[in-house]
Design goal:
Blueprint (H helix, E strand, L loop, with lengths): L1 E9 L4 H12 L6 E12 L7 E10 L2 H7 L6 E3 L20 E3 L3 H12 L5 E3 L5 H14 L33 H11 L16 H17 L3 E3 L4 E8 L5 E8 L4 E3 L3 E3 L6 H9 L5 E2 L2 E10 H9 L16 E3 L5 E8 L3 E4 L9 E4 L8 E10 L14 H16 L6 E5 H6 L17 E3 L8 H17 L9 E6 L6 E2 L11 E2 L1 E3 L10 H21 L5
Parallel strand pairs: 5-6, 5-11, 6-7, 9-23, 11-24, 19-20
Antiparallel strand pairs: 1-3, 1-4, 2-3, 8-9, 9-10, 12-22, 13-18, 13-21, 14-15, 15-18, 16-17, 19-21
Length: 546
């Protein structure tokens, strides 16, 4: 097959137009085209007067080699790469050394799934509940202000990504097409088939629930075990005189011990108690940079008009998104993060006495507001007491501002909020304007400067007018800022070597967002596949340690 890139078609085109473009590009007759498959469809909206779709297609031809030879100088016509996923190992008959996976977010789920497909019968341990029970507990916070620290937006089957936009695009390098494998598994689990070819695929929260349930069923059918409400309270690690350790098992909060020489650590970016446990058990950790800020809400119609002009509302374009960055005079960078078109701002706290915001949307992206995090980069140098001798200092930094937001919101899990006009002017907000908040269990109008570092406030006040020059209306006085956003990425890196093991603890395979090696559903899932491959190769290439 041949892959054709950069096929441009107008907004209102039909299937026959795409076929005609293929024939024209290749210079062939219709009879020479056996068939084609869309690999990617995106759009170019840089000029609102000329918005068009851009296709990449894989074509099957009767005389493919001759066509390829004739067009060898055309970089837009190349052989289709082999994207088939190949399992690196297979468990031998009677295999009993079952690996353990901790955490049922995208990284843990896909590590478990791939290990199960290779016959290793993994055991997946999740501190939270199965996804539907978890959903009920999450609604308990959103509707009643009742937080369950073990079952919430952060903890439970599916991980934090379940209550998000369900975005499945990433900028990671993926020469092995593991991302394609992730998308194929999602589609097999009842995700929309279009995620295989749209340039910015997403699933949305409600559909993700069903997808996660189907992934669980597949894992169990393949011999894997999934245990909920099974918080890992300790790790059994043997260390020699050099400090090098070997995992021997995990200990649950119930007291149960599960022996294991291979443990995948996919704990997510909010498992602060587990980070502390790892530190106490001598696992090498490092403090790492992340970002903090607020959620910004604008009318989705404003974003659509600013980005798409007269094409706003086109059914194939959907709700418009944006990606913004500004480098400030104080040396900080401000950027938009986890933009959710037609979505809502959600309560994402996992600790009592703290307020955390996140963004979520459904597959339809049909809500009236657009929201995105506006966040500012912070580094270990900003953390209290410095991070040279305390890899957990970033956690203390996050907690400080989450607790400040809880206090500023009235200590009820309501979130502190402020209109953009008031924020830029440095005065507290006292009444809402045209933009109505989507955050539940509610907001408390105040001055967000009380729950953010001064340099973050200064950076945001500089960046928002700059963003307005890119998206007209972004600095509208009635747009709403809701605080605080602290869980952009892990404050800790669980450092690993080239075999994906902890640098000082054999058999421990840290990965995903919690270990600092991913940022989003797709990249975390890809990392989970890589961890599964590493574990499988180790299990089949050498005997377990004595």
């Amino acid at each position: 097959m041949l892959r054709l890139t950069d096929l441009k078609l107008p907004l209102d085109h039909g299937d026959t137009d795409l076929k005609a473009a293929i024939l024209t590009r290749l210079g062939i007759a219709p009879a020479d085209l056996v068939g084609y498959t869309i690999f990617r469809r995106g759009y170019d909206a840089r000029k609102q007067s000329n918005i068009h779709f851009i296709y990449t297609v894989d074509v099957e031809l009767r005389q493919a080699s001759a066509v390829a030879a004739r067009l060898r100088d055309d970089l837009r016509v190349r052989p289709t790469p082999d994207m088939a996923y190949r399992y690196v190992a297979q468990a031998p008959a009677g295999f009993a050394n079952r690996p353990v996976v901790i955490g049922a977010g995208p990284c843990g789920l896909f590590a478990t799934l791939i290990l199960a497909r290779m016959g290793f019968r993994p055991i997946l341990l999740e501190r939270g509940k199965e996804v539907r029970e978890r959903t009920q507990d999450t609604w308990g916070l959103w509707r009643q202000g009742k937080l369950d620290p073990e079952s919430n937006v952060q903890f439970g089957e599916g991980g934090a990504g379940t209550f998000s936009d369900g975005k499945l695009h990433s900028q990671i390098k993926d020469p092995g097409f593991r991302g394609r494998k992730v998308l194929e598994e999602f589609v097999a689990a009842d995700a929309p088939p279009e995620i295989l070819y749209v340039s910015k695929p997403h699933i949305g929260t409600f559909r993700l629930v069903r997808v996660v349930e189907n992934l669980r069923a597949t894992i169990e059918r393949l011999g894997g075990a999934i245990r909920f409400q099974s918080r890992v309270a300790d790790l059994a690690i043997e260390r020699d005189a050099t400090g090098t350790g070997q995992v021997r098992g995990v200990v649950l909060a119930s007291g149960e011990r599960i022996a294991a020489d291979h443990v995948v650590l996919a704990i997510g970016h909010s498992a602060r108690d587990t980070f502390r446990l790892l530190h106490e058990r001598g696992v090498h950790l490092e403090a790492k940079p992340f970002s903090i800020g607020v959620r910004a809400e604008h009318p989705q119609a404003l974003i659509d008009r600013a980005r798409l002009g007269a094409a706003a509302g086109h059914p194939l374009l959907g709700a418009a998104d944006y990606k913004l960055v500004h480098h400030c005079g104080n040396g900080r960078s401000v950027y938009s993060f986890c933009m959710c078109p037609g979505g809502q701002v959600v309560a994402a706290a996992s600790e009592l006495g703290g307020v955390v915001t996140n963004g979520m949307s459904q597959y339809s992206r049909a809500e009236r507001n657009a929201n995105a995090a506006l966040v500012v980069d912070v580094s270990p140098a900003d953390f209290p007491g410095g991070a040279a001798n305390n890899p957990l200092a970033g956690i203390a930094f996050q907690r400080r501002w989450e607790e400040a937001a809880f206090k500023a919101g009235g200590e009820s899990y309501a979130a502190p909020a402020q209109k953009i006009g008031d924020f830029l002017a440095g005065r507290p907000s006292t009444e809402l304007g045209a933009v109505r908040p989507s955050y539940t269990p509610g907001i408390h109008l105040t001055d967000l400067a009380a729950c953010l570092p001064d340099y973050v406030v200064a950076a945001l006040r500089e960046a928002i007018p700059a963003f307005d020059r890119q998206i007209h209306g972004f600095a509208m006085a009635d747009a709403l800022l809701t605080g605080v956003e602290t869980r952009t990425s892990s404050p800790v890196r669980i450092t690993r070597d080239q075999q994906l093991e902890s640098v000082n603890t054999r058999g421990l395979y840290p990965g995903g967002e919690g270990a600092g090696y991913a940022g989003g559903i797709l990249s975390a899932a890809v990392d989970g596949i890589r961890l599964a491959e590493a574990v499988a190769l180790d299990l089949t290439s050498r005997p377990p340690p004595a």
